[in-house]
User: What shape does this take?
Amino acid sequence: MAEQVALVIGGLTGGLLLLLLLICVSCWLWKKLRATFTYEELPGSTAASSIQGGKLRPPQARTQTSRPPAVPFVVPPSLQDRDRVPLHSGERAQAPRDPCLGPELLPHPSSSSFGNTGVVGTVNPELYKFLEDKSETDFPDGCLGRLWFSVEYQREAERLLVGLLKARRLQAPSETCSPLVKLHLLPDERRFLQSKPRRKTSNPQFDEHFIFQNSVPHPPITTPRPGPSPDPHLSQVSSKSVTQRVLRFSVYHVDRQRKHQLLGQVFFPLRNETLAGDCPHVIWRDLEAESGEPPSEFGDLQFCLSYNDCLCRLTVVVLRAKGLRLQEDTSFVSVFVKVSLMNHNKFVKCKKTSAVLGSANPVYSETFSFKADPAELDTASLSLTVLQSAGGETSHQLGRVVVGPYMYTRGRQLEHWDEMLSKPKELVKRWHALCPTPEP
Assistant: This one.
């Protein structure tokens, strides 16, 4: 009897030990499986459980969510059930914004930099937006309209190709706008090219192309209208003289009586930087109103003034002149402007514009900067002198303008200087009548 009791007790003890061993092995296997199917998380993110709804994740989940080496994160399980839209080329992500998320991220210049990547598993739409062209949306107050055109110069053929593309926000005087554009290659005022008129639109699309070659403007490629008759006395648009030419676009409104009313003009000096390369350069400019005042006795000069008190920089933009009284044959003379900074009537620094050949209405659009401390502005002044060069080193002064404080100037010149000081970092543009230069 005692032997049977001992056998029963031994069997129970062995069974308990075997059951305990099975439990330990099961716990160890469970931990291994849980570690195998746990997602890799970034520091600071919530740990994801491999159990969802009391069931183990299928083995395929690891292969689908494993990240490539170049991707710094994987999508956590808490966000896996959300709808995601794949991004294709030319599309933008339209993801709902969560007010609980952190601040939006700015695009990084390098795709290999992943600092401050934001909340894991979310898509920042700002990173996928294309740079918007604001030239058709940002218009200054009082804008008369904006014109788009292209310029290309073929040096071997010595011809200038001009593309008239479009215009926006044209301001008609009364009725619906019906615009057309005339093109001049200054200083030639006699010849011009003309676009087709567009009917009843303030935002015309022209898409016409013109050729200036052998100083004879050719008709637009898309227009069968014949061009002006050639003049054998004019020279070619050579590579030496093309940088002294100016393109003028005159935008007109054609009323019901077929009268042309000027809406505005664009002056575009041809420079080396805009003619470089083998492809056309697309440019846009705002229209400028024509000055209603007649030229003064010695002509007028238009320029801008600006002062940056942070950089202690005085900026002068010489735009153009009109009504100059040239002394000789305009075919051989050139006109330039000398800008001088004075302090107590003593010369400080001088800069010159490029020379424009044979025009009583030259266009420059050149910018000059001078170093001037704020304390010097009460004793400083600017002298802009228009000079005519007839060859060699000799030049003749056509007139000048002096702007500065009350110590040196009065009237419009003083108003221009004071407005510049009252509007720091802004360009203040005005016309000024030229005065005769004093005899030495």
User: Anything to note?
Assistant: The first strand starts at residue 51 and ends at 52. Confidence is low (pLDDT under 50) at residues 44-56, 59-65, 95-118, 223-235.
